[in-house]
Specification:
This protein has 4 helices and 24 strands. It is mainly beta. The strands form 6 sheets. Strands 3, 4, 5, 6, 7, 8, 9, 10, 11, 12, 13, 14 and 15 form a 13-stranded antiparallel sheet that branches. Strand 1 and strand 2 form a beta hairpin. Bound molecules: calcium ion (CA). Calcium ion binds next to loops.
């Protein structure tokens, strides 16, 4: 598209994928660009074909595992895969080495890689990368270890890459368990299962042929759903009321109601009383209180001054004007207009006044020998109370 000016990406990453039949002013510019009928000097890294990779997702439900073969008795481990989950922790990968074990786990939303070797206890590998990876989005994990070098990378981001230069003599066992490990062995993983999905699994730099796994000719699996990601978005739609923040795991959601003024499983119940009268009935004395006149209804809570007297309860909503505001130099042409902003919206104030027996508004006008409002004949000599 013709565009002059500085390109601003807004800090977002560029789009990665395919588009077709982009039309602008009725012209199919995709087609024009392919036939080089438009100025192509501003194109960068475009190809006119869409390589559709079949990602073949696998779903794990906490009783599942997927076992894939790799090279045996090799001195290098190289695995990568993508996962998505809502759970902060889980076992991503476990592999028994000829002399120890390798595990990749999700722990508090971060990926941890751990290698322990039974013969050389002091020379293990422990590294952690990423954060907040249990956000329900796809994330890519790459792990590589050989001789004296190990590297963990999240989402292909160089900045996330953690390296160690520990000398590690690895001898691969040739079997990789993804998403769960339930066998009894000498070295067991710190976690046993994972709830979520994985896709594009590579072992020893080879994309695992999950269609072959499905047909039973490669690896093994239990309780997985193949070629589908069966994760359920429980926060869409958001069942938390009054702006409560929704978070979810594989099988449940919870609402954070802090500072919404509501509580309960879905932030439904108001934590404040509906009126100053209610506070008086509770034996409270005159003070500043939050009230929520419609309870769990949509009207938000707000602060008022409750004045408890012997026979009456006054609810006062204050405005933002100082106690006294000096006005000078007003004339017929240049009038002084003071805006009163109350600490509550009109709907909130109406909720109080509708329920009140009696209502009054005070504005004290203490200007001598001047006209108040648009009342030409009115001369004010002392002050008025409204
Ligand atoms: Ca309310």
């Amino acid at each position: 598209m013709p565009y002059s000016g500085k390109l601003i990406s807004g800090g977002r990453r560029n789009f990665k994928g395919c588009m077709e039949s982009i039309s602008y002013n009725g012209e199919n510019i995709t087609d024009l660009a392919r036939r080089k009928k438009v100025n192509t000097s501003s194109f960068r890294n475009l190809t006119f074909s869409c390589v559709e990779s079949h990602t073949f997702p696998v779903s794990f439900n906490a009783t599942s595992f997927l076992q894939l073969p790799g090279r045996r008795e090799h001195n290098m481990v190289s695995v990568s895969f993508q996962f998505r989950t809502w759970n902060p922790s889980g076992l991503l990968l476990f592999s028994a080495l000829a002399d120890g074990m390798l595990e990749l786990t999700l722990k508090d939303g971060r990926v941890a890689a751990h290698i322990s070797l039974t013969q050389q206890k002091s020379l293990g590998v422990d590294m952690v990368s990423g954060s907040g990876l249990n956000d329900g989005e796809w994330h890519e994990v790459r792990f590589m270890a050989k001789e004296n070098f190990a590297m963990l990378t999240i989402d292909g981001d160089e900045a996330s890459a953690v390296r160690t230069n520990t000398p590690v003599q690895i001898t691969t066992g040739g079997t990789y368990h993804f998403g769960g490990y339930f066998l009894q062995t000498q070295a067991s993983p710190s976690q046993r299962s994972f709830q979520g999905c994985m896709q594009l699994i590579q072992v020893d730099d080879q994309l695992a042929d999950l269609a072959a796994v499905e047909q039973g000719t490669l690896g093994a699996f239990e309780n997985v759903s193949l070629d589908t990601c069966a994760i359920i978005d429980r926060c869409l739609p958001n069942h938390c009321e009054h702006g409560g923040r929704c978070t979810q795991t594989w099988d449940s959601f919870s609402c954070y109601c802090d500072s919404t003024g509501y509580s309960g499983a879905t932030c439904h119940a108001s934590v404040y009383e509906q009126s100053c009268e209610a506070y008086k009935h509770m034996g409270k004395s005159s003070d500043v209180y939050w009230i929520d006149p419609d309870g769990s209804g949509p009207l938000g809570p707000f602060r008022v001054i409750c004045k408890m007297t012997e026979d009456k309860v006054w609810t006062t909503v204050v405005n933002n004007l100082p106690v006294q505001t000096a006005v000078s130099g007003s004339s017929r042409e240049r009038r002084t207009v003071l805006q009163l902003n109350y600490s509550a919206t009109m709907e909130q104030i109406s909720a109080i006044t509708d329920a009140a027996e009696h209502c009054e508004q005070h504005i004290a006008y203490t200007c001598r020998s001047s006209r108040l409002l648009n009342t030409p004949g009115m001369e004010v000599t002392s002050y008025y109370n409204y």
